[in-house]
Amino acid sequence: MVSKKIVRVDPKAYKALLYSAFNVLILEPSVINLFTSADITITFKRFYSDMSNTQDSATTRIYTPKQVACGALGGPVGLIYFLWANFSILKKENHSKATIILGIVFIISLIFAAPFVPQEVPAITFTIVYVILAFFLSQKFHLNKDEIMDSEEYTFHSSFRVFGITIACFWSSYIVVAAPLHWLYSIGFFGA
Asked: What whole-number distance in Å separates Cα of residue 1 and Cα of residue 134?
């Protein structure tokens, strides 16, 4: 018989859980095990545990170029996140910092350039650019799928994780781009 363990959550742990709620939803199924309505077992994992090469396991998870490209469907935030994550895992600190800085500059440029894009240009054009850019940058600077499969040090992330993070990045991109655009329009920055 499997024994059930009840974990009492203190307020600090509960606050940490609230701050990282989307992380809990996208981690492996072992994160939350519901046995009955009264017995809940929660295993806390740090979100950035995947981002270091000092794990207890023999392999470190990394995103393949196709996973990075799919993650770019999450908009500019997805593009930045997946590239940054792989650079961090590969311990390419200069590339990680450059990704964040160039990503911020890219988002700011996008906010100020968006009102001047002709109405005839479909919005999907931007998404296609993100996906192609993410794929080619990942192919050039990260490990490809064959290199990951041949490596004893690395393995790739699950597609479910990529999907979950992509959804979170999509909504983050919407907020990061739409909110400043709305504010700039409301103060009359772009005219009537």
From this structure: 48
Three-class SS state of 178: helix
Task: Please choose, from the candidates 63, 34, 28, 66, the residue with its C-alpha nearest in 3D space to the C-alpha of residue 47.
Answer: 28
Question: DSSP assignment of 1-13, as one string?
Answer: -PPP---PPPHHH
What tokens were used for 73?
Answer: 């469907």
- Dig out the tokens for 151 from the structure: 């490596």
> How many CB atoms neighbour CB 167 within 10 A?
16
* Chain centroid offset of residue 152 CA: 24
Q: How far apart are CA 90 and CA 78, in angstroms?
A: 18
Q: Are 162 and 70 in contact (CB under 8 A)?
A: yes
Q: What are phi and psi of 43, to 5 degrees?
A: -105, 120
- Enter the pTM of the model: 0.68
Q: Are the beta carbons of 67 and 159 closer than 8 angstroms? A: yes
Domain range annotation of the chain: 1-45, 50-186
pLDDT tens series, the chain, 192 aa: 444 444 444 444 444 433 443 333 333 333 333 333 333 333 333 344 444 444 455 589 999 999 999 999 999 999 999 999 999 999 999 999 999 999 999 999 999 988 888 989 998 998 899 899 999 999 999 988 889 888 889 998 999 999 999 999 999 999 999 999 999 888 888 775
